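Structure tokens please, single chain.
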Amino acid sequence: MANNELKHPANAPGPFYVTSPDDPDGEGCNGCAICYNAAPDFFAEDAEGYAYVAQQPQSDADIALCREQIAACPTNSIGENG
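Here you go.
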């Protein structure tokens, strides 16, 4: 489960976030690229290839797209309770 105590420092403020790759429980981003390839308006990669939320979604359709990334994330590192 995403850890809102260990958010990636580049996350945009708001409810959606990505857990830092430094999560000791192993649920931080592993750089798989799924979210920032599927939703590039909202997720981006840092210099090491780890994801973060670049922009918070506003519309219902955009929120649904970001929720799809939560479901698709293999490490469960995307959260929505930021």
